[in-house]
Amino acid sequence: QVQLVESGGGLVQAGDSLRLSCAASGRTFSGYAMGWFRQAPGKEREFVAAISGSGGRTASADSAKGRFTISRDNAKNTMYLQMNSLKPEDTAVYYCAATGRYSVTISRTPRGYDFWGQGTQVTVSS
Description:
By secondary structure, the protein is mainly beta. The protein is 0% helix and 47% strand.
């Protein structure tokens, strides 16, 4: 059974940092793209960042550029999201996702991913 488990969320103040982790089990995702999405109350799930299977290519939403860094350790079957200079508008449930399909492109939409974690809450106070 494939599982993606996020951790590292919490309550922080504006300007603080957090590092989210996504640990995969049940199969290896080495070679398959993975990504982070977030969903705030009353809003649709939105793309944050994604990384290719090898880790050599990344994609980020404009809101994440310059502040968030996505990375992965295929030996540990784990993906990370380093979030710096957090803002109140970053408050959301953050989900990790993985695709089970090879692709030359990195998807920025939820439909591009086949496996999802349960989410971790990030709350940034002003």
